[in-house]
């Protein structure tokens, strides 16, 4: 998604008729959502409230590191290995 704030506001205002509600409607309730954001992890953790899914939010909660994208994603737990671990 390109604008999580717009998605959040639409769900808050539209509930069951919102895009995200329709998108997640067929996802089994026992499924765990893993969200990944190059921003604060709680920014997408609300997705579990749409239909009652458990959520593992990944993101950046501290700042100040420098490096290339691959190194930073590894440092902050946003690389492929971290995402696969969260999915287990």
- β-sheet strand percentage: 5-15%
What name is given to the CATH topology? Rossmann fold
Largest sheet: 2 strands, parallel
Radius of gyration: 14 Å
Keywords:
single chain, 88 residues, alpha+beta, Rossmann fold, two-stranded parallel ribbon, 5 helices
Structural write-up:
The chain is of the alpha+beta class and 88 residues long. It is built from 5 helices and 2 strands. Helix 3 links the parallel strand 1 and strand 2. The mean pLDDT is 94.
Q: What are the SSEs and their pairings?
A:
Blueprint: H1 4-14, H2 19-24, E1 32-36, H3 47-51, E2 54-58, H4 69-76, H5 80-87
Parallel strand pairs: 1-2
Quick rundown:
With 88 residues, the chain is α+β, with helices and mostly antiparallel strands.
């Amino acid at each position: 998604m390109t604008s999580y704030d717009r998605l959040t506001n639409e769900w808050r205002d539209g509930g069951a008729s919102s895009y995200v509600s329709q998108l997640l409607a067929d996802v089994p309730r026992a499924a765990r959502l893993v969200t990944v954001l190059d921003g604060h992890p709680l920014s997408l953790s609300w997705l579990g409230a749409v239909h009652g899914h458990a959520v593992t939010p990944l993101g950046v909660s501290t700042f100040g590191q420098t490096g290339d994208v691959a190194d930073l994603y590894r440092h902050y737990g946003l690389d492929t290995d971290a995402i696969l671990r969260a999915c287990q």
